[in-house]
Automatic annotation (TrEMBL):
<feature type="domain" description="NAD(P)-binding">
    <location>
        <begin position="7"/>
        <end position="144"/>
    </location>
</feature>
<feature type="transmembrane region" description="Helical">
    <location>
        <begin position="451"/>
        <end position="468"/>
    </location>
</feature>
<dbReference type="Pfam" id="PF13460">
    <property type="entry name" value="NAD_binding_10"/>
</dbReference>
<dbReference type="Pfam" id="PF11066">
    <property type="entry name" value="DUF2867"/>
</dbReference>
<protein>
    <submittedName>
        <fullName>SDR family oxidoreductase</fullName>
    </submittedName>
</protein>
<keyword id="KW-0472">Membrane</keyword>
<dbReference type="InterPro" id="IPR021295">
    <property type="entry name" value="DUF2867"/>
</dbReference>
<keyword id="KW-1133">Transmembrane helix</keyword>
<dbReference type="GO" id="GO:0004029">
    <property type="term" value="F:aldehyde dehydrogenase (NAD+) activity"/>
</dbReference>
<keyword id="KW-0812">Transmembrane</keyword>
<dbReference type="InterPro" id="IPR016040">
    <property type="entry name" value="NAD(P)-bd_dom"/>
</dbReference>
<dbReference type="InterPro" id="IPR036291">
    <property type="entry name" value="NAD(P)-bd_dom_sf"/>
</dbReference>
<dbReference type="GO" id="GO:0005737">
    <property type="term" value="C:cytoplasm"/>
</dbReference>
<dbReference type="InterPro" id="IPR051783">
    <property type="entry name" value="NAD(P)-dependent_oxidoreduct"/>
</dbReference>
Length: 474
């Protein structure tokens, strides 16, 4: 079948894509920016990539007519604390317009479980998108899930951060809310299992794992599965705003995502039935099994996707190309050069920069800078990196965003997503004479920007000099 995969570079889309290819489907990936579709060259050769922004004005004839199935995996919860629901509604309306010009028979939408009449803004928005999609000229299958547990998922990474960093927690009362987690592997099985299944047409199904826990119990179960204990004290005085700040500072989540998550965590999300499990004959994994599977992927360096690589985890919304041309005028820069004796080994070092591997020199200074950025409302260093030795354009790399990663051209270009009085680039390039050029470029914003740059020149002298020396050691 010919399948349209919207949100192909999102957390779910990246997990779903290889499964669709393994089932011999022809896949069209619809993305806002094709430069940040983080897939390898073999996978790119197997798919068709179309740039399409459902928040932009409708443009006819972009999509092929002979689409059989379409996945609607577009969410905007992380992009805003105020108008994300309006964006999600607009995206769904535009999607319906595009589907009119195709032969699509079924649209599959991943939504959230709806248990209460008074919903959080997040869950209310998901339900509204369902209603809009039901008005489309196609058969709709809606899968409603709660907490998704898998390597790289926002929910799993938040739980992981909380438990690994805080053996003793003072928590708000929403940790007593009940939820039904589901393994990402099971979500993908459901998403592929409903393809072309007429029993699932024009219906909404709850999907969940076999366990129902409070968030507090989930934290305890995580600690137990990892072989340690944690202590949790619940207090009624922590407001939603304080709770959001608590999540933001302790975990790697963005503040926008934190405030929307806290709003939703006050609502119970429990599957009402198991109709779809019965229709497809799927037995779901327990929460304990989901954690074990997630860590197996992490330990084997096989994490396919992470929410941290989403553009909304930083300053970008779209259009990486806007920043690929490093400015030459009105800038300040630090340039280091060093002869390379083993080009391949040095490129490997460059491609491993950041994350747990660090920045090759003065890591404690990088950590301080990340902490200060976090205090100032920035992303800090907690995003790390998804892969230990692979980099794709659009990936998050601590408080940088990868603009270009081309091993053949021997060039890596990063753009700073930290809070700065200006814009900053960090570039590594090995020229035809085997000389590594390491260049930090800063375009200041007014006097404040220039004062910032000159105030940190002494640190640059040590950090950038030490970094290039250690990168070129082979």
């Amino acid at each position: 079948m010919k399948i349209l995969l919207t949100g192909a570079n999102g957390y779910i889309g990246m997990r779903l894509l290889p499964q669709l290819l393994a089932l011999d489907h022809e896949v069209i990936c619809a993305v806002r920016d094709k430069n940040r579709l983080s897939i390898d060259d073999w996978t790119k050769s197997q798919v068709q990539v179309i740039e399409l922004d459902f928040l932009s004005e409708f443009s006819p004839d972009i999509l092929p007519k002979d689409i059989d199935i379409a996945y609607y995996l577009i969410h905007s919860m992380s992009s805003s604390t105020s108008d994300f629901d309006e964006k999600e509604a607009q995206s769904a309306l535009t999607f319906n317009q595009y589907m009119v010009g195709t032969n699509v028979k079924q649209v599959i939408y991943l939504s959230g479980i709806v248990n209460e009449e008074k919903l959080s803004k997040h869950l209310s928005s998901r339900k509204n998108v369902e209603d809009i999609l039901y008005r489309g000229h196609f058969n709709l299958t809606v899968l409603r899930a709660g907490i998704i547990v898998g390597s790289g998922s926002s929910s799993f990474e938040i739980i992981r951060d909380l438990c690994e960093k805080l053996p003793f927690m003072i928590t708000p009362k929403w940790v007593l809310t009940k939820t039904q987690p589901i393994a990402i592997r099971d979500v993908i099985r459901f998403l592929t299992g409903v393809i072309g299944n007429k029993k699932t047409y024009n219906d909404s199904f709850d999907i969940g794992g076999p366990d129902v826990f409070t968030y507090k119990e989930m934290l305890h179960q995580y600690a137990k599965s990892r072989g340690f204990k944690n202590w949790i004290v619940t207090v009624p005085i922590m407001t939603p705003k304080l709770s959001s700040y608590w999540l933001y500072f302790v975990t790697s989540t963005s503040y926008k995502l934190a405030i929307n998550l806290v709003d939703s965590m006050k609502m119970e999300v429990i599957a009402k039935d198991q109709r779809l499990q019965d229709i497809l004959g799927i037995k779901t994994h327990s929460y304990k099994e989901a954690i074990a599977m997630a860590f197996k992927k992490i330990e084997q360096n096989l994490v396919i996707s992470s929410w941290k690589d989403s553009m909304v985890s930083g300053r970008f919304q779209k259009n990486l190309e806007k920043y690929i041309q490093v400015p030459k005028y009105g800038i300040l820069k630090d340039e280091q050069k060093r002869k390379v004796t083993d080009v391949e080994a040095v490129l490997d070092n460059i491609w491993k920069i950041g994350g747990e591997n660090g920045w090759y020199y003065g890591n404690w200074l990088w950590k301080i800078r990340g902490f200060l950025d976090k205090l100032n409302g920035g992303v800090g260093l907690r995003r790390g990196r998804t892969h230990p030795d692979k980099i794709f354009p659009g990936d998050a790399l601590d408080f940088w965003r990868v603009l270009l990663a081309d091993k053949e051209a021997k060039r890596l270009l990063l753009f700073a997503e930290m809070k700065l009085p200006g814009e900053a680039w960090l570039e590594f390039k090995i020229d035809e004479n085997d000389i590594l050029h390491q260049t930090a470029t800063f375009r200041p914003r007014g006097l404040k920007g220039r004062l910032y740059w000159y105030s940190i020149i002494p640190f640059h002298y040590f950090i950038f000099g030490g970094m290039i020396r250690n990168i070129t050691k082979t």
